[in-house]
Amino acid sequence: MAGVRALGSLSRLTTRRYTLFPGVTRRTFKFAACMMARTHVSYEVKGDVAVVRMNDPTAKVNTLSVQMQKDMTEVMDEVWGNSAVQSVVLISSKPGCFIAGADISMIKACKTAEEVTGLSQEGQRMFEKIEKSPKPIVAAINGSCLGGGLEFAIACQYRIATKSKKTVLGCPEVMLGLLPGAGGTQRLPKMLGLPSAFDVMLTGRSIRADKAKKMGLVHQLVDTLGPGLKSPEERTIEYLEEVAVEAARGLAQKKITLTKEKGWMQKIQDYVMSYPFVRQQIYNTVEKKVMKQTKGLYPAPLKIIESVKAGVEQGPTTGYLVESQQFGKLAMTNESKALIGLYHGQVACKKNRFGTPEKEVKTLAILGAGLMGAGIAQVTVDKGIHTILKDTTVDGLSRGEQQVFKGLNDKTKKKSLTSFERDTFLSNLTGQLDYNGFNKADMIIEAVFEDLSIKHKVLKEVEAVIPPHCIFATNTSALPIKDIAAVSKRPDKVVGMHYFSPVDKMQLLEIITTDKTSKDTTASAVAVGLKQGKVIIVVGDGPGFYTTRCLAPMLAEAVRILQEGTDPKKLDSLTTGFGFPVGAATLADEVGIDVAAHVAEDLGKAFGSRFGGGNVEFLKSMVEKGFKGRKSGKGCYVYQPGLKRRDVNTEALEILEAYKLTPNAAISSDSDIQYRLVSRFVNEAVLCLQEGILANPVEGDIGAVFGLGFPPCLGGPFRFVDSFGADKLVEKMRRFEEVFGNQFTPCQLLLDHARDPSKKFHK
Amino acid sequence: MASMLMTSLRSSPLTSVQAVQFAARSLSTSVHLQAQAKSKKSLAKPGVKNIVLVEGVRTPFLLSGTTYSDLMPHDLARAALQGLLKRTGIPKDAVDYIVYGAVIQEVKTSNVAREAALGAGFSDKTPAHTVTMACISSNQAMTTAVGLIAAGQCDAVVAGGVEFMSDVPIRHSRKMRKTMLSLNKAKTLGARLSLLGSIRLAHLAPELPAVAELSTAETMGHSADRLAAAFGVSRLEQDEFALRSHTLAKKAQDGGLLSDVVGFEVPGKDIVSKDNGIRPSTMEQMAKLKPAFVKPHGTVTAANSSFLTDGASAVLIMSEEKALAMGYKPKAYLRDFVYVSQDPKDQLLLGPTYATPKVLEKSGLTMDDIDVFEFHEAFAGQIMANLKAMGSDWFAQTYMGRKTKVGVPPMEKFNTWGGSLSLGHPFGATGCRLVTTVAHRLQKEGGQYGLVAACAAGGQGHAMVIEAYPQ
């Protein structure tokens, strides 16, 4: 499955690293113990400035937990009551984190929307007091300032942020199906203007300090410091505090004024915005854009627009009320639960459950400089790993090296890398045609053509030149690893690493272990994957492993639906309408029709009629005509470079004519088509869990969403079964089974869940 | 291990001939050295030629854009060379080689050493080359000379440095240059016209040279501000140090101690014989200045930074034998030297901290043995940060792999005739000034060992031990 590309909301969710609400469960049990003492917030008076320090002793990051809020309220009351204090600095003692967000366990613990609304209102009240503080408060931000943390900061009178790479500001609530529920939807539009505020809240993107300064989100920037008389991190926080104390003093003495001279652009914008019909136009445009991107499947963005609108048009009282009410409602939605589940899953899949490998991989050799090989190289060189990229031809190698350069250079153009960093990273890459230096390699990842005999040849060649400890990882999407390992002299060192294309964009890495793969080999593969920034699932060996095996029946069904005369565009809109970021027909083109044909045939042989559906011969005829999908310019669609619009490939439709099937009207409604596609996917996923290919449902959900684009709003196949109801799904499948037979026979585990509604994959 | 071996070798009994020389020298220097016992009586090494500084001169260092503003870099270098010739009276053909340091390159005189040497009337048979190593360029020129002599290839070498900030090469934009170069190659009128037509307004924006690191894109002043903050150097400390530099420089100037300065008759203008950047101010006035780089809370200002300077320097370096044979009385021995480099981002200006212990170890001396310290003052904050780093066990252990701190030079021995902050800092020329000043101070104050240390762009640094020549 060399070409799954997630777009739209999925890529939003996947490409941004956000650290909201981590490590929660532990904390819920701690309340009782903490209630007594003030443990999370302390303060110190420096001259006439109170420095309020936040530090959650129970976690790596600060969250707005019950204890934090209680301590903060107490401390602030003392500070306000202290006549010696003229101004306040709010700072975190944690390196790399101001406040990472609200405590999600608080929301999880709520049973009703009203309870959550109550939480939101408490937050609103607390920040209102901060906003109206008679003593100016300076938020000194170093590290992540997200969600509730940002809402806290923008309630303060002045914000100073460090230029550290870890300092990011943002409202990632939308990615959890929520909205900024502690005044964010009310304060941000005032501070940034409607367009920027919508951008920040609807994308949930993280904003770096320098950008935040330009937007007007922070007032002042502080450099990070290098080594001095203390460690750089420690001294940087100290320096930030020094600068913030000075600023607080300046504010109290009115040496620093908060009203900034407005630029003429700002004046014009304010003037235009003063007309209600202009604002209405903005709401409409934003709403339309949201509808187009989410297909109405995600309620949070619309509620954000609604809350902002209520505040701007009907005044703050209504605004805050709407915000808290909508926050409560959103927290109860399945979408939010699904997204939060994905977030937790993602965090879990960023850990190495196999422990620290015995030997760190310092030299990695990649065989094959194709799209995958070069992609793997690109995500490796910038992690300080010496990377050998080997190909058999100068042309192939040159193309691959060019791809790595382009990947890094694009980052330079976007200014996320300096040209100097790019060049330094590239110096980790050695392109070559021979096995020179392989005797020093710690790991090999082969990404040669998907053909067992070629893989065998390569494995034998490589094993002759690599040191004994070197791990051999094979990047394949469907060939069973044990078949590849069959010719190995040391099968314990062989492992599968299934990357998804494009490697630098797709976050998932599926690692496949055989029963001979040693634990250390797995640990090492996971460690390398994590270094490369991947979300990792570790699955058992078998035809198609997990991801390919789930996708194959769905694509087989898609082909049948095409054969039944459904237009590719219609098929796409049905799938995207269900929440898939990429339509089924487009997905086939992305993956490659030839690959799809290859896989369908292989897995068909392995699993028999259950993997039937569409006619493989149709795919083969397409390949014969050269319609291999996007890479060949033609597949289900015609792709023209530079042209965004694509037309249906009429020649492909002609081929389809030859394989035409008559649809059965009883199971061909739009909704039925959607469920025919999804139920086969889901059933196969559950079967993988039943057979032990999957270790747990969490990895199943993560693999499906991050690797295959399963609708994020559904949270993955397992969460979908939980929320949709196994019984209802089985019922649908039975209907399809009557017509198509065993392709729709629900697996035993699914039937178990259908029989007993108390059985859930996710607790 | 190797260095330990060398040290023990050095301290082992010398061969008889050298021992005699040794004894003779320590006798003759004993007059000045009664006060303090040194770790080593001399840094002469068996089998290594003694290399001496015969003379060192410099043009007055002027604020850029003042009297020198219409000159070219090689004019200044020529003035220094002529000054050296005049003062030493050395026959022009006795000089075997000329090395010059320069940082900002005038494209017309990329080998400024050669142009200046020809203009100064040196023999056209004397080869000359130019080196560059940011603010330690002329140190590099001098050590190149030392290398040539030590290797037995030359006996008398002139080293120097020049910097001319009144005029710097400002280039057309890359796009414009590309268009202009293609224009050269265009064959037809049509091709030329279409190229000319492709010129846009944006093409005309010029490219200015910046004192910024290519690797980090950070200007040096910004880095200095961060460095000062990292070591907790306050604005007050920086202003005090800057004021000290100016006050001491003024005293030295008035007391006639800056004898390395040679007058320069600037064509069409008056004769210049004094540095013009020495301006002792008051703490109050200095406190008024706004930070120059990190705004609004930075601590580095125009008053506590070295200013853009025009100037050139030159020294005559010879083997001791040759100098004595030619009847010269050398000023000092040039002994061990080191170059160091570290992280160009966060430790850009910490060269002296790293170089000092290294060169001391090499020569077998301790901080206490040094009578005269001359450190390059790029910024008051940079000097203070270096002093704090040298005084910190934690820093030495964490970042330098040492067991204990380097040690802080006593201020009464430190830059007592002013420094780059007050005298000025023509990038390429400062190194020779430092070495000459050490030699002069050793002579004047009667010390035996002096230490030069400097930082440079790129996160590099240099240090050299200088030994007084027995008077």
Description:
Chain A is 51% helix and 11% strand. In chain A, the strands form 4 sheets. Chain A has an 8-stranded mixed beta sheet, sandwiched between helices. A 6-stranded mixed beta sheet of chain A has the order 1-2-3-5-7-10, sandwiched between helices. Chain A has 763 residues and is of the alpha/beta class. Chain A starts with 7 loop residues before the first helix and ends in an 8-residue tail after the last helix. Chain A is built from 33 helices and 20 strands. The longest helix of chain A is centred in the C-terminal third of the chain and has 22 residues, at 670-691. The two termini of chain B are 37 Å apart. In chain B, strands 1, 2, 3, 4, 5, 8, 9, 10, 11 and 12 form a 10-stranded mixed beta sheet that branches. Chain B is built from 16 helices and 12 strands. Chain B has one domain (51-168, 251-468): Peroxisomal Thiolase, Chain A, domain 1 (3-Layer(aba) Sandwich). With 471 residues, chain B is an alpha+beta fold. At the A-B interface, helix 11 of A face helix 8, helix 13 and helix 14 of B.
